[in-house]
Amino acid sequence: MKRDRRYQRVIQTLSSFFVFFLLAAFVATCTVMLFVSALQESLGREFTQSEITLAAKITMVNVVLISIGMSVIDFLRRKYTVERPVKQIVAATSRMIEGDFSARIEPIARIGTDDSFNEIAACINKMAEELSGVETLRTDFIANVSHEMKTPLAVMQNYGTLLAAPALAEEKRIEYATAVRDNARRLADMMTNILKLNRLENQQIYPSLSRFDLGEQLCESLLGYESIWEKKEIAIETELCEGVEVLADAELLMLVWNNLFSNAFKFTDKGGRVTLSLEADETHATVRISDTGCGMSRAVGAHIFEKFYQGDSSHATQGNGLGLALVKRVVDILDAEIGVESAVGIGTTFTVRIRRAGNEA
Is residue 284 packed enough to be buried (19+ CB in 10 Å), middle (13-18) or exposed (0-12)? Predict the structure, then answer.
């Protein structure tokens, strides 16, 4: 490889010298001929053969020297303005190929250098920054998935071992079997959410827009949790503006409401309250889902839309930290907005703002 590069460099140097030699010879010959012609006319005599031969020899030496000088200058120019920036770029990209996404290309001096190299370097640095972020997300994702799978699998393994006991009471058998079933369901839900989130993030799900009544959809989603609020004796308060229509993907938007209601009932203690309100102005509809649950701190609230994030470890068995990540992604796809207000010990309010039908422009 190195021998080939040296051979190519020698060929390139000789080619450059040959080109400069021809150029210098042509310019020098034309210049000398014009000079001799003008000099003969001004002096009124012709030069002898020996004088012309001497002038030709001197011209030839000058052509060779000029060609050598131009070749050296061109070699140095290419070395400092082309080869050095290229080596820097190649060295950085080689490190990236090996997985080192911290590699960066320093700005190249502009004196005598084409600024295009700086544009290339800036693009490569930006690419390395993005790749570094993707690699970090990938590593965190694998670590989080492994952690989330480990807990239910360990529970299933332990209870499965207990179920194998020959003298196990019927009551305990049902209890252990229920624990295995619940953790298996948790694993299945996590896999389903991971697939949904992956499809959403890779834009493999495209919104199928339709016009529908938002209030009716909210009521349908809320009624799906009737058994839960009755069991926990949770009070329900609703204040819905009628006739509010939106143009959106009904299935994706239902995913948002189901996750928000699920969280509201999950973290609201027995005897608490969940409130649903729908307001509308000329352009937007605003949905608020509030609960009187445990609430969360400002630090936790800043991360709740991140994958696998669970601010309250005491509730970790109730979810896998993917629901709100799905909600955020769906809201972004539908060009809507979501916000959260919460206080520890008081409760949480999620606010979703979406454009009304007929006001999409």
Answer: middle
Q: Which domains does the chain have, with CATH numbers?
A: 2-114 (no CATH), 146-201 (1.10.287), 210-355 (3.30.565.10)
- Which residue from 199, 330, 213 is spatially nearest to 260, judged by alpha carbons? 330
Could you read off the pLDDT of 279-314 as tens digits, one per residue? 998 899 999 999 998 888 777 766 677 655 555 544
Q: Which residues pair with residue 273 across a beta bridge?
A: 235
CA 35 to each of CA 32, 47, 127: distance values in angstroms, whole numbers, following the listed order = 5, 12, 59
What would the two tokens of residue 57 be? Answer: 């020899």
Other CB atoms closer than 10 Å to residue 298's CB: what's the count?
A: 9
Pairing of strands 273-280, 284-291: antiparallel
User: Which has the closest alpha carbon to 326: 246, 259, 273?
Assistant: 259
117-173 confidence digits (pLDDT tens)? 778 888 888 888 877 766 665 665 566 566 667 767 887 888 888 888 888 888 888
Query: The pTM is what?
Result: 0.52
Amino acid sitting at position 357: A
Q: How far is 135 from 46, CA to CA, in rounded Å?
A: 81
Contact 267, 291 (CB under 8 A): yes
pLDDT of residue 175: 86
Distance CA 246, CA 350 (A): 19
Name the amino acid, one letter, at 183. Answer: N
Cα-based angle 210, 212, 218 (whole degrees, multiple of 5): 125
CA distances from 20 to 6, 17, 192 (A): 21, 5, 69
What lies within 8 Å, CB to CB, of 258 at 6+ separation is 221, 224
